[in-house]
Amino acid sequence: MSRAIHDDGDRNFARQRSVFRLSMIADEPVYLLLSLDGVNIDPIVDELGGGGARLVSAKHFDSFYEGQMLGPAVLVLQDEGMPVVYPVVKWKSWPVVGVEFMQIPEKDREMIIRFLFKVERRMVQQRAEPALRRTSRLT
Predict the structure, then answer these.
(1) In terms of Cα–Cα distance, which of 68, 85, 67, 88 is closest to 76?
(2) Which pTM does this prediction carry?
(3) Is 57 helix (H, G, I), strand (E, B) or coil?
(4) In the CATH hierarchy, which top-level class contains the domain 3-138?
(5) Boundaries of every domain in the chain
(6) 15 against 119, higher pLDDT
(7) Of 49, 54, 40, 47, which Cα lies nearest the Cα of 104?
(8) Which residues touch 118 (CB under 8 Å, ≥6 apart)?
(9) Which one, 46, 55, 100, 115, has least CB within 10 Å?
(10) pLDDT by residue (tens digit) across 45-103?
C-alpha cells in the first residue's frame, strides 16, 4: 500500500542523512524487496546508510512519488540479514530514488551499519591488493 507522508521532517532527514553512508560494490548487490501498487519489485540499492538508501529503478521510476510510503519492505544484505524497513520517498531524479527509513528498530539499524563496515573493509582490501602486488615486484 502506498501513502503519502507530508511533514516538516526535512530537518530530521538532514540529521539522519549524516549517518554513515556508502556506495555499494557491484559484486555484492543489495536489493530492497517491496510491493508497489500490487507489483513486486526489487530495485538495486546504489548507496546505503543507517537512515536510508538511494535506489536505482528505471523500469518502475514513474511509480514513485515524493512523500510515498513504501513499507514494509525487506532490505537484502548479503551474509548479514534481511531487516524489514519502512522507506519513504524523499526525492527522485531519473532513474534514481532517494528513500529514508522510518521507525527502524535499533537492532535493524545496527545490522545495516555492521553490513556497511563489512563492505567498507572489503573495498579497502581490494584497493590494497594491487599495491601489495606492485610492492612485491619491486623487491
Answers:
(1) 85
(2) 0.73
(3) coil
(4) mainly beta
(5) 3-138
(6) 119
(7) 49
(8) 79, 80
(9) 46
(10) 999 988 899 999 999 999 999 999 998 999 999 888 999 999 999 999 999 999 999 98
